[in-house]
Amino acid sequence: MKKIITLLILLYSFVNIVNADSWTQKSNIGGRYGAVGFSIGSKGYIGTGYNNNFLKDFWEWDQSTNVWTQKADFGGIPRDGAVGFSIGAKGYIGVGHDSSSNYQDFWEWDQSTNVWTQKADFGGGIRWNPRGFSIGTKGYIGTGEDSLYRQDFWEWDQSTNVWTQKTAFGGIARSVDVAFSIGTKGYIGTGWNGVTCIQDFWEWNQSTNVWTQKADFGGGLRREAVGFSIGTKGYIGTGWNGVIYKLDFWEWDQSTNVWIQKADFGGVARTSAVGFSIGTKGYIGTGYNVLNDFWEWNSTTTSMNEVIEQNEVSVYPNPVNDFLNIHISKNKLNEELIIIDMSGKEVYKKMISGLDNRIDISKLSNGIYIYQLRNINEKFQGKFLIEK
After folding, report:
1. Which one, of 255, 294, 251, lies nearest residue 274 by Cα?
2. Considering only CA atoms, which of 123, 235, 218 is closest in space to residue 179?
3. pLDDT tens digits along 137-167
4. What is the value of pTM for the model shown?
């Protein structure tokens, strides 16, 4: 017998949410691209980069006052293409290049004293446009260029000031990719290999030193994008796909390995920007060509109880073997239906309208699938099972 299962009681007790996310412009910072950024507590930091000159200035943004304050200049030579991250109350910037030299130096900034101290040079040698992140008291740098594209991956111990080489990045050698961490896992994806943009996405396990490929980035081929994490979600947006600059923004769920598109970045499309998170907010700013704007992303999560009253969506039969029926009790125009398998791959996409829609899923294999329904005002998703 066919069962009508609403979004409130989806198969396998899947919890649905709708995200009303938006971008708000904050105070501008001096224009640049190819800079580095990270956060410490409720403060964000942007430094180095290029604005027709190579830069070494370093700025602090206060989330509570929305004010930028210049701090002590970066301790090394002015540069772009560097890497930055934070560990505790310390910030780190290293490697990069300028018009005549490439660097492997690595510097620590103390938030309490506003002093830069040089640490051990990066273990992988000279490097520009690599990516880095921190997990606990360890910092990590990998990929990038040193006349060749690289995939080596290095760990720096804050307590010993020693670099140790770890298992090479699982994907092909690349540069201008994105990286962030979630818990004890690190993530690297997208980028440029000297021939083409890339969209693969990889997870590194700190405890096992093993790389595992995850679902490809949902926005397609991309280089010089921005990446950061909030809680158990990762985010990638902006950048270049080899043809045009982009302003799309995507969320990756660590628990489901699924990418979901969020509200487009609030500024103009760009590449070589800076991104970081503070608490539950994300931030993107600067970028090519010498942009100075700075934006905050906020996602407000609400219960599907509120959404179901407006939409009253039903999906049946569930399990299904040939045709999936989607009923929306209030007529909605131009709903985008996307079906994603549990590896994160998009397997079906169609615009639907009206109250009742019959979707042919007979060519899909047995298994659990996620469906997403989106229109200009709302986004929500659920699960269904194909069982033949």
Report:
1. 294
2. 235
3. 999 999 999 999 999 999 999 999 999 999 9
4. 0.77
Nearest to 232 by CA among 207, 251, 208: 251
| Cα 60 to Cα 166: distance, rounded to the nearest angstrom | 32
Task: Single out the residue of 119, 85, 79 nearest to residue 103, CA to CA.
Answer: 79
Condensed to tens digits (0 to 9), the pLDDT of residues 162-216 reads 999 999 999 999 999 999 999 999 999 999 999 999 999 999 999 999 999 999 9
Burial of residue 168, with CB atoms counted within 10 A of its CB: 0-12 exposed, 13-18 middle, 19 or more buried: middle
**322 backbone dihedrals φ, ψ, rounded to 5°:** -140, -55
Identify the CA nearest to 276 among candidates 227, 344, 333, 346: 227
Token representation of residue 93:
């910037």
Nearest to 10 by CA among 304, 352, 235: 304
Instruction: Decide: 342 and 369 in contact? Cβ < 8 Å.
Output: yes
* Distance of alpha carbon 336 from the chain centroid: 23
Where are the alpha helices (H) located in the chain, listed in sequence order? Answer: 304-311
* Distance between CA atoms of residues 298 and 280, nearest Å: 7
